[in-house]
Amino acid sequence: MEAMVSVAPKGRPREFCTDRALAAALRVFWTKGYEGASMADLTEAMGITKPSLYAAFGNKEALFHKALDLYEAEKLAYVGVALEQPTARSVAECFMRGAVATQTSSCDPKGCLGVIHSMACGAEAESIKADVIARRASSQAALVARFERAKAEGDLPPHVDVGGLTSYLYAILQGMAVQAGSGASREELERLVDTTLAIWPSA
């Protein structure tokens, strides 16, 4: 349900939809990066004043964290679906194809918001980078646990290094995100998925 907020820093109160404003902020961060997104960029896209932004969302850093929550809930929903797949190979396939669909969507900026900000190096973005890396570590740990279960069930060969396999899969995902951001087509990225699946270890 959309939340409507009225704020009145000066003069007449201004009412706006926080859900739409946050979605607009997400697109700005996704397109320009945390450091590249100015307050002017954000307020223009969100259709609100700077005082309204502070009143509804806090500062720029707090706004980014809320935008990242939205990104994970809406754009990374495939992660939870992937972890519920019946085999390790189908987990990996769902994970990769879900990433490709998100990274090459015609409705959103290309690439991956998390990859963009895990590589941010400016002092202003250090806390942002730390949060993104922590979130990635959490999802990576969930994937390790899923592959450990697959190994225990005989779905993965006994010799497989589950940690190494997970790191390999994430390297593929991050590489695809960089390529998508550089203009690679969905078809090109789907070929990478097919190649990865062709060499996937089977019991």
Structure characterization notes:
β1 and β2 form a beta hairpin. This protein has ten helices and two strands. It is elongated and about 60 Å long. With 203 residues, the chain is mostly helical. 27% of the residues are buried. It has a two-stranded antiparallel sheet with strand order 1-2. Keywords: DNA-binding, Transcription, Transcription regulation. It comes from Sphingomonas aurea. InterPro entries: DNA-bd_HTH_TetR-type_CS, Homeodomain-like_sf, HTH_TetR, Tet_transcr_reg_TetR-rel_C_sf.
Which SSEs are present, and which pair or pack?
Elements: E1 4-7, E2 14-17, H1 18-32, H2 39-46, H3 50-57, H4 60-75, H5 77-83, H6 88-103, H7 113-118, H8 126-152, H9 162-181, H10 186-198
Antiparallel strand pairs: 1-2
DNA-binding region: 38-57
Domain HTH tetR-type: 15-75
Keywords: DNA-binding, Transcription, Transcription regulation
Give the key terms.
mainly alpha; Homeodomain-like_sf; Tet_transcr_reg_TetR-rel_C_sf; DNA-binding; elongated; 203 residues; DNA-bd_HTH_TetR-type_CS; 10 helices; TetR/AcrR family transcriptional regulator
